[in-house]
């Protein structure tokens, strides 16, 4: 059989891939019924019940503070700012961004305290239970292209943009 379900990096949607033949398809391969599809490796990429995605893709801009789980980053070895100062910094970025995904990525690349800064804040695909709860809830609540308000987690304060 050889079929599995993978997620397209370019489109952000699942597709079928046959590891034996290297064939790929956006549509369910002939000869597979729904029960067989549900049993394929990667079936978790398919939409869940109620149209809610099993995974989302998001980018973020993180500003850490002295109360963060690890108050250091690639650009600052010892972060001493308060949470309130971190939120103020993030609000300034929020004003610059508006709803512009390009500006979001540029600011994340320059200023995010996360290692994802090197990919404009892109965290890739993630599902339930893979991120801290407040981050996960915010990301899953966004529509594609939408940017969150300030979200606070143990890592610091974030702006989150859902990308798929």
TrEMBL record:
* Enzyme Commission designation: 5.2.1.8
Chemical reaction(s) catalysed: [protein]-peptidylproline (omega=180) = [protein]-peptidylproline (omega=0)
Give start-end ranges for the coiled-coil region(s): none
Q: Where is the WW domain?
A: 1-31
The residue ranges of the PpiC domain are 53-164
Residue numbers spanned by region Disordered: 23-57
* This protein's UniProt keywords: Isomerase, Rotamase
Instruction: Name the InterPro entries on file.
Output: PPIase_dom_sf (IPR046357), PPIase_Pin1 (IPR051370), PPIase_PpiC (IPR000297), WW_dom (IPR001202), WW_dom_sf (IPR036020)
Protein name as catalogued: Peptidyl-prolyl cis-trans isomerase
Taxonomic lineage of the native organism: Eukaryota, Fungi, Dikarya, Basidiomycota, Agaricomycotina
């Amino acid at each position: 059989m050889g079929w599995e379900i993978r997620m397209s990096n370019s489109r952000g949607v699942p597709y079928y891939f046959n590891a034996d033949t290297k064939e790929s398809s956006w549509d369910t391969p002939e000869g597979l019924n729904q029960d067989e599809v549900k049993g394929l490796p990667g079936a978790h990429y398919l939409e869940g019940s109620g149209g809610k995605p099993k995974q989302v893709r998001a980018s973020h801009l993180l500003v850490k503070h002295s109360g963060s789980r690890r108050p250091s980053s690639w650009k600052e070895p010892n972060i001493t700012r308060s949470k309130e100062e971190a939120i103020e910094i993030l609000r300034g970025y929020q004003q610059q961004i508006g709803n512009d995904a390009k500006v979001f990525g540029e600011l994340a690349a320059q200023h995010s305290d996360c290692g994802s800064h090197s990919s404009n804040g892109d965290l890739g695909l993630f599902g339930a239970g893979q991120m801290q709860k407040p981050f996960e809830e915010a990301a899953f609540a966004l529509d594609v292209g939408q940017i969150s308000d300030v979200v606070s987690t143990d890592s610091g304060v974030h702006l989150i943009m859902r990308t798929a």
